[in-house]
Specification:
single chain; about 290 residues; alpha/beta; Rossmann fold; 2 domains; two-stranded antiparallel sheet; 14 helices; 9 strands; about 15% strand; disordered N terminus
């Protein structure tokens, strides 16, 4: 019986091939073969629709001179597409059960420009010694904010990030004054984000509980200065958002001299009744400099 099953599995691989990583039956077969149960912990939801990959490649503007970092390659539906276009792809994978899969994959040897790095990207960022690189990835939901923040905080920032993230997170990152948050300000201080497309949950297997979105984040120089100044900046921003229902001037009274605040607000043209979410990034930077 075991021999019959092995023959059946072999026929599946021959019939479907490595180009059908969008096929649910094939993904189920691969999961069974490598003892993998899609993990919520690692955000393992596999794309079964080609449209988001095409949009991500287009948004990333990849050329043969590009070095690309990917987080969580899974079975490689995005990874292999990236490797066909870029000079070099570094893919970070935490799920060790996938190691035999990648060791068997003939495409790696054919392409010659793909390296799988086994480890947690949150710990490996500090070890990246590359310059002028892009991050293209379908990020596990649980680490989205941490990954974006850590890459934007490094001295060697990526020039561009194209990421698939939870829809709600994408909208928070790209928020405009009126709906701002600490996350939006932390990203928009050093980068310009935009939503490329929305991705319905039906485009994944297993089906996640929420929809996704592809966002494009291009680095820009709009920060407040040194790392130490950044820390001081966000200490004040977080204080301002401590209670979103309260007026900003009251929230800031907990960390600043409240007698000086009205004059500073007036000088900058900020209403003393404004709330933290109503200020733009530029207004926040001006306000913190004055404080």
């Amino acid at each position: 019986m075991e021999c019959v099953q092995q023959i059946y599995q072999c026929r599946i691989e021959q019939r479907i091939g490595m180009t059908s990583l969008y096929n649910i039956n094939y993904l189920q077969h691969l999961c069974k073969k490598f003892g993998l149960i899609p993990s919520k912990k690692y955000g393992q939801n596999f794309l079964i629709n080609e449209e988001p990959i095409a949009k991500m490649l287009e948004a990333a503007e990849i050329t043969k001179d590009d070095v690309v970092v990917e987080v969580g390659p899974g079975f490689g539906v995005l990874t292999l597409a990236l490797a066909e276009k870029a000079q070099k792809v570094l893919a970070f994978e935490i799920e060790k059960k996938l190691e035999p899969y990648w060791n068997e994959l003939k495409e790696i040897k054919k392409l010659g420009n793909l390296e799988i790095i086994w480890g947690n990207i949150l710990y490996e960022i500090k070890n990246l010694k590359i310059k002028n690189y892009k991050i293209i990835s379908n990020l596990p939901y649980q680490i989205t904010s941490n990954v974006i923040r850590k890459f934007l905080e490094t001295e060697n920032k990526p020039e561009l990030m194209v990421l698939m993230v939870q829809k709600e997170v994408a909208e928070r990152i790209c928020a405009k004054p009126g709906d701002m948050s600490v996350l939006a300000i932390s990203v928009q201080c050093s980068a310009e984000p935009e939503i490329v497309m929305y991705v319905p949950k039906s485009y994944f297997w297993p089906v996640p509980g929420v929809d996704s979105a592809v966002i494009k984040i291009r680095s820009r120089e709009l920060g407040v200065g040194s790392r130490k100044q950044d820390e001081g900046f966000f200490k004040i921003v977080k204080a301002g958002f401590a209670n979103r229902r309260k007026m900003l001037i009251k929230n800031l009274s907990s960390v600043m001299d409240k007698k000086k605040l009205p004059a500073i607000f007036k000088e900058l043209g900020i209403s003393d009744k404004a709330r933290a979410q109503e200020l733009s990034v530029e207004q926040w930077i001006s306000l913190v400099r004055k404080l």
